[in-house]
Design a protein that fits this description.
The protein has a five-stranded parallel beta sheet, sandwiched between helices. β3, α3 and β4 (about 90-95) form a beta-alpha-beta unit. The protein is α/β, with parallel strands linked by helices. The protein contains five helices and five strands.
Length: about 150
Amino acid sequence: MTPILYVEDDPNDVFFLQRALQKAGVANPIHNASDGQQAIDYLQGAGKFADRKQYPLPGLVLLDLKLPYVMGLEVLRWIRQQPQTPPVVIVLTASAEDTDIVAAYRLGANAFLVKPSEASKLAEMVKAIKDFWLTHNTLPQIGRASCRE
């Protein structure tokens, strides 16, 4: 089962998303990158992320836009320029700006979700992510195992 890479710099958001994923029964391992450069390093298998047994390529990336060092849209651009089979990238951000939404889709985001402020709404969103992206969606098997549970 492939991990999920959650790229988020706010520890509270990380905590609440991990809790919602557990409640939804998502068994995929969750890895966190706390800034855009760390996300790129993880995906490249560089530096502390060089051990692919410990840090396997994710099948799903949940990506915030407002990040330290490298912004989320630049991370998305970098992901889509890589030659290997790209992971599913869901932008999960507080921004509901139309310019961010348009830019994310132009750069190849698979989905754009605005983080809800209520825990119950986050739980609904996570269940929808699980049901569609981790259960029903079919990914190519080239270069990585399935995201399915």
